[in-house]
Amino acid sequence: MSVVGGGGGERVVSLRRYAATARRGRGLHLVSCAVLLAVAMTAGAVAVGGDGRDTARAAAPATGAVTAGMLAGDDLDAAIRSLRAHLRVQPKDFGAWATLGLAHVERARTDGDPTRYARAEEALDRSLALRPGNDQALAGLAALAAARHDFPGALEHADRALAQNPYSERALCSRIDALVELGRYEEAERAARTADRRRPGVPVFTRYAYVRELRGDVTTARRVLHRALDGAASPADVAYVATALGNLERGQGRYPAALHHYARALAADDAHLPALEGRARAQAAGGDRAGAVRTLEQVVARSPLPGPLVALGELYEARGGPGDRVRAREQYALVDAWTALARTGGVDAGLDTALAAADHGDTAQALRAARAEWDRRHTVHTADALAWALHRSGRYREALPYARRATATGYRDAAFLYHRGMIERAAGHHRAAHASLTTALELNPGFSPLGARAARTALKELTERKAAR
């Protein structure tokens, strides 16, 4: 099955038109590739529930004809059509409205159109109007709030759903997601253990693994994911867990292992976009830049989301062929357009704004956005973004405590270590900078074509400086 769909091409064309208008109005804002790549594969993924498929799987069946399984993968559009047809006949089916709301949340994630969230909210509100306090709709609102980056709201809705149904898988998972994205990692781990007791399964296992990874326990994370993969029954589950394993191994610089897991995911579902994106990143990190470009071009044609758009732009820049700089700018412009559209869909894109402006835009704007995001939630990702925005504003001494906080949980992310090393270097802590940059490149030498190249250059300068002394 081809990953290039007609609908995806239309979305890219629309975004390009939007981006062209934005450029005429306020100039082109490029995106900090090294930072956003890390966030796109961690915080952004967890905020909407891993790769998003578990959001659909967790939805309770609305009717005998429309099941939660229909909301996964290629059946999503068919599920939405079936739900709408059913609701025309039975408009008072509150469960069907709740399931439709979740389907719209999932569709917004997969097609990169955040304006769909308004439809999701309308359906979920309709469900609650028909049956006030029903846990299916409350769990759906938790997923919607998380997708919009309203993590306090997601936590509130999840808790309300669990008060009605302590075994709601969607609510249990959304609660973990919200706590993670609020930086409350110890509580997130307790929530994951609670969810494991009540509803053990792939959605809970993968979240528990991510919480352990955030706390630096990669060994446990890997073991839990392998256990989840062994127990995965459906192709959707296999693709989801194998992709999570691929992402984990890629982050540790184990590219052949990552590619093996992505291949398994794609054998289960050859159109699984997170696996295709992960494979492209692993290809790039392992030196197959041409293969990475081809794969990412397929991905963005189907789903023009910030992560793959930025990754593709960075690969064009690194390749440096005729026209590649223009191609890179086009990808960054699409990211800028997506961010603006996300805001129209009620998505809090403050972190994206901070990351975009820090390297390639208005550093004052980047710093304002990063500070605002930090005020809302204290996570390793917001700490890293604030540190980098401060550094890019020339305030590297203020940046250093935040860079250290970003790595304080034990989370091993090469982009974070790269940022910390560059900030330490600017602050005159040359020995610490040498150690941070060395660790970043040893951990994941291909974490970003541009970032890794800058890290190697800085490390070489530090080594020569030391030798000169």
TrEMBL record:
SMART domains: TPR. The keyword Oxidoreductase does not apply. The keyword Nucleotide-binding does not apply. Keywords: Membrane, Repeat, TPR repeat, Transmembrane, Transmembrane helix. The chain crosses the membrane at residues 27-48. Coiled coil: none annotated. This is Tetratricopeptide repeat protein.
